[in-house]
Design a protein that fits this description.
Elements: E1 2-6, H1 9-20, E2 28-33, H2 39-50, E3 64-69, E4 72-78, H3 85-91, E5 101-106, E6 118-126, E7 133-141
Parallel strand pairs: 2-5, 2-6, 4-5
Antiparallel strand pairs: 1-7, 3-4, 6-7
């Protein structure tokens, strides 16, 4: 696990941009953290790092936004308004866990057990100052035993 301290929205954006440049089709990124902790800012940076040229915003009401990038499709999912894993299954987001897209999931706490065996988990916590955020990035490869 790698942990970073961001002191501003710009630093969170830059960290997302750097992380995004390392992603490839098939990657699933679960983002967890409180409201206002930097998830969407990080996702905007990830999309920039992947070469998305569209406006990137939180899909809180649409639930899912799709963007075109040089490597294929980037899927941005926001589960803030979803109350249970059953609702997630009904949405069919597992269809996006394929080798044609990078999948970014905000408010992923509800569905951690539904994620593919291999995924990235990014956690956001408030820092000591109002503008500080502690961001940890961990890659999981869960065995199929």
């Amino acid at each position: 696990m790698r942990t970073f301290l961001s002191r501003s929205a710009e630093e969170t954006l830059a960290l997302g941009r750097s992380f995004g440049a390392s992603l490839k089709p098939g990657d699933v990124v679960a983002l967890c953290g409180n409201l206002g902790s930097g998830k969407t800012q990080f996702v905007i940076g990830v999309c920039e790092g992947l070469g998305v040229s569209n406006h990137v915003g939180s899909p809180t009401f649409t639930l899912i936004n799709e963007y075109t990038a040089g490597l294929g499709k980037v899927v941005h999912i926001d589960l803030y308004r979803i109350a249970s894993p059953v609702e997630v299954v009904e949405l069919g987001i597992e269809e996006y866990f394929d080798e044609r897209s990078v999948c970014l999931i905000e408010w992923a706490e509800t569905i951690l057990s539904l994620l593919p065996r291999r995924h990235h988990l990014v956690r956001f916590k408030y820092g000591a100052d109002e503008s500080e955020r502690e961001i940890s990035i961990e890659e999981f490869e869960v065995s199929s035993v």
